[in-house]
Amino acid sequence: MEKLLPAIPSSADARGSAREAAAMSVAKGTYFLGLRFDSASVESAICDILAETDGRFKYVVTPNVHNMVQLLENPTTLWPSYERAWRVFCDSRVLSRLARLNGIRLPVVTGSDLTARIIARLGELRLKIAVVGPPAAAGAALESQYPGLDVLLHTPPMGFIASAQEVQKCVDFVVKAEAPLTFLAVGMPQQMMLASRIANHPRARGVGLCIGASIDFLTGKQRRAPVWIQKAGFEWLHRLLSDPRRLASRYLLECPRIFYLVWWRRGRSRL
């Protein structure tokens, strides 16, 4: 019999409560720009995720505007990984507002908030997590910040996704770690493609989260915008001003294409 991952929470009663809450939290999927989004609050998303950590590997994605532009412009490469995702939460208030203008409600569950809340919860329960992407110093910083947390970390080389051998190393690491939660922080679209590969492995267990730069925010390597800027929908501007050389192309050239893509799909009645 295959060894199952440790249940979260630690008692049967708590686990039953988490599963009941998760079942209540799952709402019907909402489609926007052709992609299915799941409706949830951050708390209900956490309950949903923690209730599924002892099953076959599944993964969560939180697309923002940049991700949606990439997805819509490269559907052959990226769409299969998104469609296979177990949960899809809207990460962007700009995207949510664009949906609202078209009569579609998309609650925002940011990947950074989801990551921070789940890691804090796992630290309280003194459990382990697997992290793929950041350098070893990030793992040490997380363990220092959350003393009950046990961090297993694998850092693949740049461009690893083009190497079958390096991708397999990532998959093997996740399988061997047997962690209830795996955080994939290797950038878009690599983390999506890697999550799909892990899901193919018959012995992979737990839930994977594609989290981008969320670990950098937690460890202080990058600073998030103040809450009021986040709520105003200008977190993208804060990130741009914090690193204009690296992010100018993304936020000034690539992301604005979302407005054309929304208009074009609306004209074809495919929102």
Beta percentage is: 5-15%
Q: What integer is the average pLDDT?
A: 85
Q: Segments where pLDDT lies below 50 for 5+ residues? A: 1-27
Instruction: Tell me the number of helical segments per DSSP (H or I, 4 or more residues long).
Output: 14
Number of strands: 8
Order of helices and strands: HEEHEHHEHHEHEHEHEHHHHH
Radius of gyration: 18 Å
Q: Kindly give the count of domains.
A: 1
* DSSP helix fraction: 40-55%
Task: Indicate the overall shape.
Answer: globular
- Distance N to C terminus: 46 Å
Sheet/helix structural class? alpha/beta
Largest sheet: 6 strands, parallel
Biggest sheet strand line-up:
4-3-8-7-5-6
Write the layout of secondary structure elements.
Elements (H helix, E strand, L loop, with lengths): L11 H14 L4 E3 L2 E3 L4 H9 L7 E4 L3 H9 L1 H10 L2 E2 L4 H9 L9 H14 L3 E5 L3 H10 L4 E5 L9 H14 L3 E4 L5 H11 L6 E4 L3 H6 L7 H6 L2 H8 L1 H11 L2 H11 L4
Parallel strand pairs: 3-4, 3-8, 5-6, 5-7, 7-8
Antiparallel strand pairs: 1-2
Q: Keywords, please?
A:
alpha/beta, two-stranded antiparallel ribbon, 52% helix, globular
Describe the protein's architecture and organization:
It is a single chain. The chain is of the alpha/beta class and 271 residues long. It has one domain (26-215, 224-264). It has 14 helices and eight strands. It has helices at residues 12-25, 42-50, 65-73, 75-84, 93-101, 111-124, 136-145, 164-177, 190-200, 214-219, 227-232, 235-242, 244-254, 257-267; strands at residues 30-32, 35-37, 58-61, 87-88, 128-132, 150-154, 181-184, 207-210. The strands form two sheets. The chain has a six-stranded parallel β-sheet with strand order 4-3-8-7-5-6, with helices on both faces. Strand 5, helix 7 and strand 6 (150-154) form a beta-alpha-beta unit. The longest helix has 14 residues, at 12-25. The chain starts with 11 loop residues before the first helix and ends with a helix. The model is unreliable at 1-27 (pLDDT under 50).
